[in-house]
Amino acid sequence: MLGKNSVAVLGIGNLLCKDDGIGVRVIQRMLDSGKYAYVDLIDGGTSPDLLCLLDDSINRLIIVDALKGGGQPGDVYRLDIGDENIADESPASLHGLGVLDSLKMMRSLGMQPPAVTIIGVEPADTSPGLGLSAGIEALIPSIIDAIDKEIRSSY
Fold first, then answer.
1. pLDDT tens, 93-132?
2. Measured between alpha carbons, how far is 10 from 44 in angstroms, rounded to an integer?
3. 121 inside domain
4. Tell me, what CATH number does 136's domain have?
5. What gap in Å lies between CA 5 and CA 32, rounded to an integer?
């Protein structure tokens, strides 16, 4: 079990569809750095069941995913799930139904972490392919910096 003030970062994505894999790539980079041993780093794959991946000891959940928000490729969005303004009309994550449905179910069961933030990245190319597009790949350090700020604000 995790500690009561624990933080989890969940990366979501399909590594076989270029920029759709951004969440998983970010988690891989964070794991490789060795700097985040005090945080749960979770590779959620393509359709995570949050009820199976998380336990009730998590106070802060940060989800990283490709997100089509209507902006330019590479735009980074920050959404707090607790905000009423995104409850019904949020930008569409490429895995939105699974993640949002899981969060709604967790909320209805009283199991949603108290703080949930989505860091979404507007993809440039989600066609079949193994690597991220160059522009999205170049964003990984700044995405990790944004996640790091979220983590630090939790302690």
1. 544 456 777 777 777 777 788 889 999 999 999 999 999 9
2. 6
3. yes
4. 3.40.50.1450
5. 24
The 3-state secondary structure of 58-111, one letter per residue: EEEEEEEEEEECCCCCCCEEEEECCCHHHCCCCCEECCHHHHHHHHHHHHHCCC
Structural domains counted in the chain: 1
21, 139 contact by CB (below 8 A): no
| 56 pLDDT more than 90 | no
Q: Which domain holds residue 37?
A: 6-152
What integer pLDDT is reported at residue 47 of this predicted model?
65
- What are the Cα distances from residue 3, in Å, to 57, 106, 107, 118? 6, 19, 21, 22
Nearest to 6 by CA among 68, 82, 61, 65: 61
Token pair of 46 as six digits: 């393509």
DSSP string, 125-136: --SSBSS--HHH
Distance in angstroms (rounded) separating the CA atoms of residues 42 and 133: 23
Asked if residue 110 is part of any domain, the answer here is yes
Torsion of CA 125, 45, 99, 128, to 10 degrees: 20
